[in-house]
Amino acid sequence: QPICAKLMSGRVAIARYLTSTGSRVYEPPILQIDGEVFAEIEEGRIVAFNGHPESAKRVENHYKRVADLFAIEGDTVHSWHAGIHPGCSYDGDIADDPDRWSNNVFPHPRFLHFHTCGNYAPGEICWMILDPTIVVDGVALWDDGKLMVENFRETAAVMSTWPELRELMLEPAGPIGIDV
After folding, report:
1. Contact criterion met (CB below 8 Å) for 73 and 118
2. Euclidean distance between CA atoms 60 and 66, whole angstroms
3. In sequence order, which residues have a C-beta less than 8 Å from that of residue 88 and are 6 or more positions away?
4. Per residue in 120-134, is it b (16+ CB within 10 Å) or e — as a string?
5. CA distance 115 to 113
6. Tens digits of per-residue pLDDT, 30-42?
7. What is the mean pLDDT of the chain?
8. How many CB atoms neighbour CB 54 within 10 A?
9. pLDDT number for residue 25
């Protein structure tokens, strides 16, 4: 279940592509990012895009265009969640079709997703963050893109109930469309 970002403040590095969430159709559904761009967030609102100057401006313009197209709040970071399907893989290359790539690797546990541009889930623009570390109450739930199934009673119980999932959860499927 997505986690509300209404009170979230911080800085998120976004790279490679902004992709559509698939909520509504717009063209083009992606924006290539050359160089790193940082989204500065205060209480669930994007207050600035910084980093590579030309790319930051292109990201800002993309948000404005999509927000204007649907008459929505473009500066909203609504929620976030990580993928949990360790059998997911993508044999293609992200550059061949970033929209297709995004829709296919969305459930992969190596990706964290932010729902942005619109005050509803999933919003209209997705940030796909590769290999996140997510800490809950001081304990890693994800560590560098790996779901730490043994670190929480609830996830460990799933592994006890379905032991055949253990190996797959510890070593998710192969290619993800990005050479890292």
Report:
1. yes
2. 10
3. 104, 105, 107, 108, 172, 173
4. eebbbbbbbbbebeb
5. 6
6. 999 998 899 999 9
7. 93
8. 11
9. 95
Using only C-alpha atoms, the chain has a radius of gyration, in whole angstroms, of 17
Cα distance between residue 107 and residue 89, in whole Å: 9
Greatest Cα pair distance in the chain: 51
Q: How many angstroms separate the CA atoms of 91 and 106, rounded?
A: 14
Contact 14, 127 (CB under 8 A): yes
In the sheet that holds 111-116, the strands lie side by side as: 3-4, 77-82, 111-116, 125-130, 10-20, 30-42, 45-51
Which residues does 75 contact at the CB level (< 8 Å), separation at least 6?
Answer: 45, 46, 47, 63, 67
Total length of the chain: 180
Q: Three-state SS for 136?
A: strand
| CA triple 53-112-133, angle to 5 deg | 95
Q: What are the pLDDT digits (tens) for 51-100?
A: 999 999 999 999 999 999 999 999 999 999 999 888 899 999 999 999 99
Question: Cβ(106)–Cβ(94) under 8 Å?
Answer: no
Give pTM, 2 decimals.
0.89
